[in-house]
Amino acid sequence: MTGRSEQETDFLRMQTDTGKTVQKPQHSCRVLLEQTDWSQTVLGPAERWPAVLRAALDLALPAHAQIVIFWGPQYTALYNDAYSVTIGNKHPKAFGRPAKENWSELWEDLEPLLSHVLRTGQTFSAQNRPFYIERRGFPETVYFDLSYSPLGVEENGASGVLCIVSETTQRVIAQQQLSDINERLELLFSQTDAGIALSNAQGHLLKVNPRLCEIIGYSEAELLGRSLIDMTIAGDRSQLGLALRRLFSNSESFVHHLTISAGDGRFVPVSCSVSALRDESGLISQAVWTILDVTQQQRAQALESQLAAIVASSHDAILSTDLDMVILSWNEGAERLYGYSTREAVGRKVTMLLPADRIGEESDIIEKISRGIRVAPHETVRQSKNGQLIDVQLTVSPVRNGQGEIIGASKTAHDIGERKRAERLQLAILGEMKHRIKNVLATVQALARQTFRNEVHNAAYDAFEARLGAMARTHDLLTAGGWQSANLAHIIEQTLKPFGLENFSIGGPDLVVSSRAAMAFALGLHELATNAVKYGALSSAAGHILISWTLNSDQPETFSFTWRENDGPAVAPPNRKGFGTRLIEAVLAAEVSGQVELTYAPGGCVCQLVAPLSGILPPDE
Fold first, then answer.
1. CB-based contacts of 225: which residues, under 8 Å, 6+ apart?
2. Start-to-end Cα distance in the chain
3. Which CATH number describes the domain made up of 176-294?
4. pTM of this structure
5. What is the CATH number of domain 477-615?
6. How far apart are CA 420 and CA 226, in angstroms?
7. Residue 180: pLDDT band by 50, 70, 90 thresholds?
């Protein structure tokens, strides 16, 4: 291409990030753009191309994203190097040519999409959109994430289409293969009477079901990656290894009787049936193991005896009922806790243990158990034979028959009476501590009033008294939480109540914070509100403050808090930092192990705090 203007040369020049001209690769789209005599094409000389087309090419050519531009009524194709890879042997002949010439096999599918964007000026996007294409000498179906956007939109429609695409063919194929494998696994793993596993040719386990973990005595994490051959006793390993090699070479399924060294030290005799699993190409890719414990009945009897001994010797009250709430078993712990002997309890309704105000609890428990719904451990109250009310922690589990059907419920009640009495004592002590601390705060306030009684100290006293009030209100919230934690929204509302809550918009997820964080927020918010009254949004009738916080799930998890003033007078950074500003930037940040940033935009002060979530939550969270 000759006779190029300086403007066109600038338009076509390929540059690096530093602005230096670099060598253009052979058949690169940039080189094709420079070397093509566009005056002989439907697009005409490059220097006459519309600004929007030139701008789009400036964006597309250096981009790593796969971008193609279809311009004009013939959809002339202009694309970048990243896109050229996706069209295979259609490049470079497709560059600068009408799209129908080189995409004829899919034109009936592609043209309506492009035409719609040109005609309506509306963007079209899709994920994993299939296309039939012949790009490497054979037909194939490929998939793309795509976004088609109009270029040069006017009243009669657009002049071109900017297509940003990303080929997802491999991802779609992988998802389809994974779906097929998962369907097979679900079918196999539904056979819950047996231990099932998938392995490679060396016997290394790739997938196991819970039943196999039970049989072999290892957790899933312990089994994955280990060789099942190595877990058999020495006399069985050679025979099993040979059979597995034959399976992968000749597809010879086999059944062996083996002894496995279990994780708990036992030697478990099993019947092991192994068959081949083929991939879509027909090759054997994995082995399917079906393992049955041939001593299941003996193990079940031993386990039953062991469980019976545990129940009998437990200090907790353990009983079982059928689905009609009739008591079927009753251990010594239940005799001690409730006062009924086994003879008195078995055969009676378990509702005999319920106080009058909780008579519906058992029916609710049985209804959930019978539907297979988990009943979480919970605290409740039961009534003994002599009428005494007993605080208990109740754990409920379903009882199943040999076919896995739920036929009743097992209930373990742990006496928490001592703990409850301790909690009540703690509440009394906290109440007394609250009373005494308030007396101390009142004394401190009186001393401050005497200390700052000179009129020149009025402002200092007012600030001190307000800070003391913020601490006192937060103290009340912490006392209600056992001096361990408090709700963040409640802290904010209590601290800002003297400033008029109607001046604030407060929003964020429900969050309980530690006592240290609670005090830090109370003092920091008070300083921010005080400054807003003096200089910021609260000094104007129209002023308003937005307070928000979010939890970010990144690792590590973080907490973000924002104070944003709006519609107040114009603000500017202070000439010096006062005590309040230093308190916000240093104390608040330090107490929650975070960082505070104060900015003074013309529209209002903005305070942003970012801290690790661990610095905000109570210690036991």
1. 204, 205
2. 70
3. 3.30.450.20
4. 0.35
5. 3.30.565.10
6. 48
7. confident
